[in-house]
Amino acid sequence: VIQIGQGIRTEFDDMVINGDLNSRYAYGGAFLAELIPLGKLGKLGKVGKLTGKGPSELRHKLDLQMFAEGTGNRVPTKLGAGSDPNNFVNEHAKKHLYDPTKPSTPNRSQYGKDVDVFQLRRDTMNNPDKAYSNWPNPNNPNTQRITKYYKEYDGNISTPDTPTGSHRVFENIGNPKSSSHFPYVPRK
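== ATPase ==
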């Protein structure tokens, strides 16, 4: 655990030195969500409080928030990929595209600004934590062949409005227009 924490701390220090940290805070602290498992985010306090501190104080905070928990599934990132329509399989899936003018909600979750949606979808389908299919099942009244893929990631794949590491891909073989993929946020 210490070795993992050291690697993350080094990466974090490099970002502070290179001036990248504040630019990432500009869209609500998604940087911390990439580094710290969701269960640990609440213990850090408000992200705005961290921006005025020096690297040593921030490093100490990260030392306290070790990465002992998690699935080991890192969130793939690529600048601006969450708002690139080419990363989405169809119009139905594009409703989950990152849009800074609208809030992400449990009913209409959005991908994070820099989440590599294409890689996330591919990884979820190729290496799912769970996968369910309704075919072949002659007793199933639903004639559409649908496979659902579930995968948990260690970081936030959505926006700070709806933080989640849960990803879902629904592949409809009979009607690809009905396929979709999205950050899963439980409804309350």
